[in-house]
Amino acid sequence: MAGTLTARTVESLKKAGLPGMTGDGAGLYFKVGKTGGASWIFRYKIAGKSREMGLGAYPAVSLADARTLAADARKLSAVGKDPLAARDAEREAHREAQRLREAKRMPFSKLAADFMAAHGASWSDKWRQGWLRKLELYAFPHVGMLPADEIETEHVLRVLQPIWSGKTRTADEVRGQIEQVLDAAKARGLRSGENPARWRGHLENLLSKAEKKKARQRQHFPAMKWQDVPVLMAKLAEIGAPASVAARLLILTGARSHMVRFAAWSEFDMEAGVWSLPAERMKTRQAFAIPLAPEVCELLSRLPRIEDSPYLFPGQGKTGVMHANAVRNLLHGLGHEHTTRHGFRSSFRDWASERTHYPREVCELALAHDERGQTEAAYSRSDFLEKRRALMADWAKFITTPPAANVIQGDFKRA
Question: Residue 283 belongs to a domain with what CATH number?
Answer without folding.
Answer: 1.10.443.10
